[in-house]
# Entry
Amino acid sequence: MNNIENSYSRYFNTLNKRKGPLWQSQFKAAVIEDNETLLHVHRYIHLNPTTAGFVNSPEEWKWSSYTYFISEKQGLAEHKEISINSIDMYKQFVEDQITYQKTIKGIRRSLLE
# Structure
C-alpha cells in the first residue's frame, strides 16, 4: 500500500504542479483472525456512509458492496467465511447498529475538539 500511495502522490503532485502529502496518515493493516471480528469490520465498513450522513441506509450508497451481500443471488452464499448465512439476519446485524455507530462518531468527534 505504501508504494501505491507514494506513486499516486508523485503522479498527482506532478500533474497538478504541487508538493506535499495527499494522505492524512499511513495505511494500517490488521489481521482478522476470527469470524466475530470479520463480522464487526463488515458492519463498520457498510455503515460508514450512513454514519457520515451521506445516505440514510447502507444500501443507498452506490459504491458499497452491501447490496451484494444482501442480494438473494450471490452475497452471503459465496462468502462461506461469514458465519451469518441468513440475509435477514445479516441485514439486522448491520442495520441495528446505525444509530449506535452515529452516536460513537459524535462522541469521538466531541472528545477530539
Notes: Residues 31-112 form one domain.
